[in-house]
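Dear all,

This email documents one entry for the complex benchmark we are building for the journal club exercise. For each entry we list the sequence lines for every component of the assembly. Then comes the predicted three-dimensional structure of the complex as a token string, followed by one or two observations. Please use this as the template for your own entries, and keep the labels exactly as they appear.
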Amino acid sequence: MSLLTINNLSMKIGAVEILRDVSMSVDPGQILGVIGESGSGKSMTAFSVMQLLPEGATCTGEITLGDTNMLTAPEPDLCAIRGNDVGMVFQEPMTALNPVKNIGDQVAETIRIHEPSVSKAEALSRARAALDRCELPGDRFPLTRYPHEMSGGQRQRVVIAMAIARHPKLLIADEPTTALDVTTQAEILDLLKRLVVEDNMGLMMITHDLAVVSDLADHIVIMKQGEVVEQGAAATLYRDAEHPYTKALFAASSHQPDRSAPQHALPLLQVKNLVRDYSLPRTKLFAPAGKFRAVNDVSFEIKRGESLGLVGESGCGKSTLTRAILGLEALQGGEILLDGKALVTGGHISRAARRKMQVVFQDPYGSFNPRHKVARLITEPFHLLDTPPTGLAHDLAIDQALISVGMAPDDKHKYIHEFSGGQRQRIAIARALIIRPELIILDEAVSALDVSVRAQVLDLLAALSEKHGLTYLFISHDLSVVRSITDRVLVMKSGEIVEQGETETVFEHPTHPYTKALINAAPRLPDDIKETA
Amino acid sequence: MLRYILKRLQALLISLVVASLVIFSAVEIVPGDPASFMLGINAQEDTIMALREQLGLNVSLTQRYFTWVTGMIQGDFGTSYTYRTPVSDMISERMVISLPLAIYALTLSTLIAFPAGIIAATRRGSVADVSVMGVTQLGVAIPNFWFAMLMVVVFAINLRWFSAGGFPGWDAGFFAAMKALTLPAIALALPQASILARVMRSSLLDTLSEDFIRTARAKGLTRRQTLWRHALRNALIPVLTIIGLQFAFLLAGGIIIEKVFFLPGLGQLIFQAITQRDLIVVESVVMLLVFAVILVNFTVDLAYGLADPRLRRSR
């Protein structure tokens, strides 16, 4: 008998239909992968199982966990089930823990809430055991640690320890590794897999990333706009997908944009022996402040028309390097040449240099002023021009920029909240393009996008590069994206470039141990999908 | 935590020194010579000189500053120019009213605001929430002296539960004294409680939408347990800030309420001293208030440290 059965689950918030006739089941010891893009209802399905829904949500259908019908069970029964029979792990480990309580108390709370008779000392010792199981050893991670003293991956382990402390029959993991670096992601996935085997626990794994579940899940459910479009055993579904959406999703995940932009031999941007130090807070009142070298002796160049990738995990210095190239960081050594001329002279970056560079940021929601219309937003770079276009030329430039990124000229009259994430990122690219720069820095520009939208944006970037002879510096933690869009790649670790070379060569034959570790840790789709796609 | 306390203490001392310098120079810059003011406009030049000598106004500024500061540290605030009595006596006479009144008002305001804010936040959009928001809106808008007069009309004149004003002194007994302070305390507390309740509500609403609240619910905690164990302590930081600010205001900011209820408090003292150019009293009372504010902020900082472990390290 199944551990969890969801039968024809429909859910509405107010009058809006969120889920429609969703059915799936999880057996003990089984890993169910629930895959879908944003808005597909995959998280809402999970929250329906927990009955932790937003206010005004109403469910119909059936959710049976063990012998309990979760939809009809009264709240006190649900409280007794949550954390005891079913545990949950969330996407954002940085905010999932209470910042003012130490980890011991937080894990012990799960135990004491369900077994009030357990003494505090006993609960703490069981919390210790749960943390040990999640590979947070007591000598390095005492129970008195606070969440802010730990990294994202370590916090996620604490959340997992909290969820499994009572040995639940079912664990729901909602995008548990999305916010983590690839190597950390691989470790967390291994941990979840081990816990499933050890406790014969059912795992419902929700993700947008097909590759994450490809070698983990036994059974896969594909969701789209609140409905299950296809489901089946993982081993066969990847090969024999029938539904057009599933096929499109698989294709988009391993999408290879068609790139044939000509390259020139001349370097556009040269970075020579760049050094950036940050001072650390003083440890003693009169002691000299310590230094942290975020970028250490970094040198590279980008040729005109080339697309260069920069990969590395969080904290490796790639953001600092990007900011330095944009002239936003004071340097402690080295120089940056743009078109053979020093970028920063007398502490300032010239307008002429700024004109040649534009940037597209990661967050398509936060990088626009919500009070301005699109026409004003995308013409912001005009202040870099000595004689910005006026009148008709001005309007024409806006229309052209919007058309070139696949938007309609009429969109200029709208506000940014009227657009989806992918459309916003197109507008961000239009903003970067409008003054015809030579170099565009894409700082995790597609990381927040769904796979199908991401594929479209990557195609757009490839087409624009060919049409306008653009040069890209493509910064990302996502190795598969970097592999698909760049000619050469730099691998950065602890402020240094540890490996660089032709993208294909680096990916096929990495030489540095760190590059090898990164590539091995990155989840991959089964090879035969790529061929069918 | 010890290092955090020491650092805060260090900041406290620096603030005190800077504040004393600012107050001293500000009072010195104010036009009007106390000696000529005391003797009236027809006074002889040599009489004024003699009085200046007697008041210690003729020595250098630095010397006067140090005499003032060292005096204060020893509890000697000098002698009032106008009344020829020690300033410390005048202040302590007023303090026995102002300090209990401030504490009384703050306690009332906290006792009203916390439950109101918590109920409003946990039942967002309900009748209770709407009423709390409506009443607090009114509480912020109504001038407290008008509310004070209204209370006098209702509770003192019509119902005769309280006297309309005055203070019998602590010798009359704790309850009699507290009774005399009750109406003023309520009048002072009303706007403060309204602000505090609103801050509590919005801060708690923010906290309740945090991810870790959802985590706590997923662990099996009930709504109530989540509120008490996880939400409240996190919501407390902005509330503590407001409480700190309010206490400082209540100490001397209640001058209008003191007037309405005929209470000889600190506010009245400083008002008189300013109109009479009694600079030494002004200096001392202002310094004392600054000291109180800094001390309250220090306490609030310590409370932050207790409430939030992240602050213990980062500052």
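Observations: Residues 227 and 315 of chain B are 28 Å apart (CA to CA). Chain B touches chain A at residues 210-212, 214-222, 225, 229-230, 233-234, 307-310 (CB under 8 Å).
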